[in-house]
Input
Amino acid sequence: KALRNCEPVATPNGWVSIADLRVGDAVIAGNGEVTEVTGVFPQGVKQLYRVHFEGGNTIDCCGEHLWVYKHPRARYLKKGGGDYQKPNPFFGEWSTASTETILAEVGEAPTPIGRAVFPTSKPWQIEAKTVPFDAYAMGLLLGDGSMRSHGFRYASADKELTDALSSALPDDCELVCDGGYNFRITRGTQARNIGPDGRFQRTSPIIKTMRSLGCWDLLAHEKSVPDVYRYNSVEVRLAMLQGLMDTDGSIGRSGAMEFSSSSPQLAHDVAYLVHSLGGWSTIEQRQTHYTYKG
Output
């Protein structure tokens, strides 16, 4: 019905303020499909409510805004306690109601057991685009690679990952072990560095590719996922996320998947990939430290 003018809306090319949308623009629907804006109806001044979601995200909407949700009574398989538990006839039931109706049902600050539940979106069905380098291997390089003028390097103790990266490299490049778990990406023989015009190429095509993607000569805290991978098909986004998780991902004590990075933008890019694939995530900051020689 109505959202705050600055609320972001998912589109095939990223988030766009709802105030900037026009008739005919493409947006992502809740089922993950790309749909078209058919009308824009300014609502004037209205009372808004801020809805909080698990993970810290919020949205400001009017009281008449409609939601698909699960009432707290529909969240649990059985009702009652102890020896008095009975099957819950409302379990799994989805309903549609306004913000004000849900507010009246659960209150402003419900306990965890009394909260309404909203569905996550389905994976966003963005049109496939050609990528200049394998998405999974690109994720590996963003995670454990160094793409700088003093050397094109990669570090991993996992042979499966180094094999995957090696197989994705163009013909003019090789993954060479420098000892231990350190590798460098280097050019092959001169014969393999002859370009289509028959002339020797001074700069490797893969370096040209990384420069064109904006990934070359960046420090760790400056890394990000290039747009052509971020706004691409489910398969490309999933492969990119898998490469990132296989390098800088882990399983936390609670059993949840975690991704750690010194780059705020890369962290937000990973969160975007997760959301666009139908999941949800939170971003937390912490100050790391180590004890020198001790």
